[in-house]
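Researcher: We plan to redesign the surface later, but first we want a full-length starting point. Tokens attached.
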């Protein structure tokens, strides 16, 4: 009976933690990144406000830092034609499918602009992650059709 109880407790403890795949992803994402380019699944000119903050042009070239031990980060927009400065956020990586390697990434801004919107967050797909490159995708509906925003990062 004691062995059965010990087995059940062990299984419970192991099931509560993040999977090995998510833990590995957090190690890889740690550090400094640059958002190099942003593309859209459909051709055309779009007036997209990414993360309810700035345009595509402002985000391209922005510097990002991820601190996975406390799930926080900061990005810095430095383009002269944009509202420059640091923006803080918290993030969570949730496993979607271990076989395909796709994850959900939830990013919640914590800067002054979003404080009144306490539960405002953005769900993105972490579609690719390696030691040097990372890709996010955000799926939206535009005029009733699926639309995907792809963001490509390189590690510094």
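Model: Full-length starting sequence:
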């Amino acid at each position: 009976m004691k062995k059965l109880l010990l087995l059940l407790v062990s299984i419970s403890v192991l099931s509560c933690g993040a999977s090995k795949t998510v833990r590995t992803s957090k190690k890889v994402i740690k550090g400094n990144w640059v958002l190099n380019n942003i593309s859209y699944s459909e051709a055309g000119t779009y007036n997209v406000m990414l993360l309810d903050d700035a345009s595509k042009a402002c985000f391209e070239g922005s510097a990002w830092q991820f601190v996975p031990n406390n799930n926080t980060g900061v990005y810095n927009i430095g383009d002269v034609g944009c509202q420059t400065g640091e923006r803080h956020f918290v993030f969570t990586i949730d496993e979607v499918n271990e076989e395909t390697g796709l994850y959900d990434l939830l990013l919640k801004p914590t800067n002054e602009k979003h404080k009144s919107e306490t539960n405002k967050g953005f769900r993105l797909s972490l579609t690719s992650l390696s030691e040097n490159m990372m890709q996010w995708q955000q799926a939206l509906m535009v005029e009733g059709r699926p639309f995907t925003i792809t963001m490509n990062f390189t590690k510094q």
